[in-house]
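Work Package 4 report. The design task specified in the project plan requires that, given a folded chain encoded as structure tokens, an amino acid be chosen for each position. We show below one input record used in the internal validation round.
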């Protein structure tokens, strides 16, 4: 009974819907911001997530075995969604036509289950090994891959970024180094949901206890440039605030190592300050960046 129920949850109730895709493409920042605050009253997905966790609590060994068995099966399903042959979600938005393969949709749903159950599964699914064997290739901003997978490419990039945050305590030093460069690259993604997700996950890595400043400094100049580009391109206050706060966190964690790059950090701030005349929180974030920059330069 449990295996049938979990299969229904993953293949029907936890999958992204056409309505979700339309919101993603039409209002990407609000989509990204709202995903962590959806309630059981307004969306079926949080209800299904809660049910999975309840099953896991009561039938732990059985559910772990089911998830372990489902993972290779679903990861072997084709991801190509650029043709109607493999697409399960198709539609038209103001930004054009989209196609998403069944493999991408089901993989996104299963990864959601695994992330929700990360605390329970971390001994059963070694995240560093799984990431390098199955997830790393999907995190690369590859134009050919996106052409073949269609919307499924950004769908899985966003989910994998979220997964990294769920398993942040399991990351090895080697994987952290890899993730620094991969996530910074995704800050320049053509998809705004992916960019916002990259900001969120990079913040978790930068503020984590095991942050490695000597490695992150190698991508710091690109990160600062990309984060300020997010601030410039964002339409929502919350997105701009998150990106600015991350700039401040980066400078704070790198401390004196960031000193050679402080001009690049502070140069954009006057324009941001002027544009935020009615937004005290944004101006507060600017002042925080300046304070950390002064400390780093001492």
């Amino acid at each position: 009974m449990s295996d049938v129920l979990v299969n229904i949850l993953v293949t029907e109730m936890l999958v992204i819907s056409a309505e979700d895709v339309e919101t993603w493409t039409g209002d990407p920042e609000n989509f990204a911001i709202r995903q962590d605050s959806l309630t059981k009253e307004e969306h079926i997905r949080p209800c299904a997530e809660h049910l999975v966790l309840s099953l896991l609590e009561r039938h732990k060994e059985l559910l772990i075995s089911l998830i372990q068995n489902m993972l290779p099966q679903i990861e072997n399903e084709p991801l190509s969604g650029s043709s109607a042959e493999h697409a399960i979600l198709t539609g038209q938005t103001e930004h054009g036509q989209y196609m998403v393969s069944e493999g991408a949709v089901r993989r996104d749903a299963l990864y959601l289950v695994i992330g929700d159950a990360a605390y329970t599964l971390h001994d059963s699914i070694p995240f560093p090994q799984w990431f390098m064997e199955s997830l790393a290739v999907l995190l690369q901003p590859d134009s050919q891959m996106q052409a073949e997978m269609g919307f499924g490419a950004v769908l899985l990039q966003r989910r994998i970024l979220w997964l990294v945050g769920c398993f942040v305590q399991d990351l090895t030093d080697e994987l952290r180094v890899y993730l620094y460069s991969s996530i910074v690259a995704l800050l320049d993604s053509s998809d705004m949901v992916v960019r916002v997700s990259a900001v969120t996950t990079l913040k978790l890595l930068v503020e984590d206890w095991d942050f490695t400043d000597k490695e992150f400094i190698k991508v710091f100049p690109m990160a600062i440039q990309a984060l300020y580009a997010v601030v410039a391109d964002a339409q929502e206050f919350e997105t701009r605030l998150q990106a600015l706060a991350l700039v401040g966190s980066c400078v704070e964690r790198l401390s004196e190592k960031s000193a050679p790059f402080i001009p690049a950090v502070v140069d954009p701030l006057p324009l941001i300050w002027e544009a935020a005349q009615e937004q005290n929180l944004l101006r507060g974030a600017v002042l925080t960046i300046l304070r950390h920059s002064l400390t780093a330069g001492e």
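The first strand starts at residue 87 and ends at 93. Validation will be extended to a larger panel in the next phase.
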